[in-house]
Amino acid sequence: MATKIENKSNSAGQEEEMNLLRDHFKDNIRILSSIGQFSYILKIRADQYDVSLTLQLDGSYPKKPPEIIITAPRLTPDQILLVQKLLQSYSETLRNQPMILSIYSRLLKWFDENNIQALTININNNTSTPRSPTNGRLLSPTASINNHNKISHNDEHNNEEIKKYSMKTADDIISYIECDNRLDKHYIRVGYIDHILGLQEKPFNDFDFKTDLSTINDRHTNILDISKNRIQHFKYVNEIIWDKKSHIDLIFGSTGNQQTIDDIIKRHENLIETKSAQDEKPIDMDHNLSTKRYLTLTDGLYKPNYLISIPINDSSIISHYIAYREHLLSTYPSIFSSSSSHILLIDPHHLHLTLLTLRLESSLQIEQCILALKRIQEEIHYHCSYPERICLEFHGIDTFHSKTLFIKCQQNNRLDNLRTLTIERLYEQQQKHKMNNILFAGNYQEFIPHIIIFKSKRKFLSIHQNETNDIYFGKQFIDALQLSSISTNENEQQMYHCIFKLDLS
Prior knowledge:
With 505 residues, this protein is of the alpha+beta class. The protein has 3 domains: 5-114, Ubiquitin Conjugating Enzyme, CATH 3.10.110; 170-211 and 223-273, no CATH class; 291-503, Alpha-Beta Complex (Cyclic Phosphodiesterase, Chain: A), CATH 3.90.1140. The chain has 13 helices and 20 strands. Strands 8-7-9-10-11 form a 5-stranded antiparallel beta sheet. β2 and β3 form a beta hairpin. α10 (363-375) packs across α12 (413-432).
């Protein structure tokens, strides 16, 4: 009874804090409610530093601090990890009280402590930190947010201009890319506005920048001719190097960014050297790892209870999945009747492609697994993005032992390698950081990527025999990995619950 009252109190307190945050941050905050295990997911933008703060709150907040994720194109991966650890530790000191605003303020303070310039400056004072327009005193991080609109208003009356750095144009960036031989143009992508399709992104080499037309002809030819004022961003190895809206310029440094194109190139070269060195190493560890990496025990102590998967969120795939499932329900009503408790249908909003299954036996192991995934995020992201993003194609249906009907994923060597890479890196993290043993339970040497349509405890030979295999469901890029728990409901049917998502977009 006490727990129910406490949960109700937490819920009311959370809702009150969310309302205060909405009033405080206005358009700079996005709040999602009831997402999986989380009661709220918040994304707060600090545009002055080009950083986003994501906080994931479960029902026990503020007794339990939120999960904190930082997105900051101007910071290195090591800096991002450092800031996340700092904020996570800081949040531990704020238990049992509203802490979101304090965490945000501590983030701004870190930027100030590390002398990272803001994207706006005061010309008279020549400083990167917002100052009071009347007396020049430094504002606290919280006060600078509260008074942002007031400062802008007062500046108009006091003729103290606060403006952004003069930014190089897209034309300047194109000229630089054409001249700098260090930049491999195969790794450069251009984001631009299509009048019909909206924001699009294509390889740099697909464009003809010698002409400057007002229409895009990519629907008729293989060469793109666009007006340069429609270009929104440039990426190198999937990292933003110039962005019009966010005021990022890593090529010339015209907007005061701390990173430069040299940093991006060096990081890319280091990744290539690391990958090459790993590829040259003889694979002599399979015989040592096979029992841990590919356990096929699916019962007793080693039954898998977690999985790492690719979430399927493409609207076309989901709509085709729903349409086909409705076809099955209407064509085979006896199999899918309400009395058929042996049938498990997968929720369309929880579709996924399983990479591997795990046995995690404690909350510490779960936390260590999440931390290990964060540590290998950059390498996984690199593998999924270059030289092109991995595209999964789903075509046809098949069964496992006539008990599991699934959608087939077409053969993709890079997907196979992603699974192997994930297993290898998780094992290495486990050894390097002396993590508690994470068992790769329930996996087989042969990897058959698929999306489950339904599972049954009984065989359903009639369905597979009568259904055509020539059904196309669609394509999707890999934009995330997720760690999900595997549970069983009252009918002993498997249920999946995402507890962590690794962003690869």
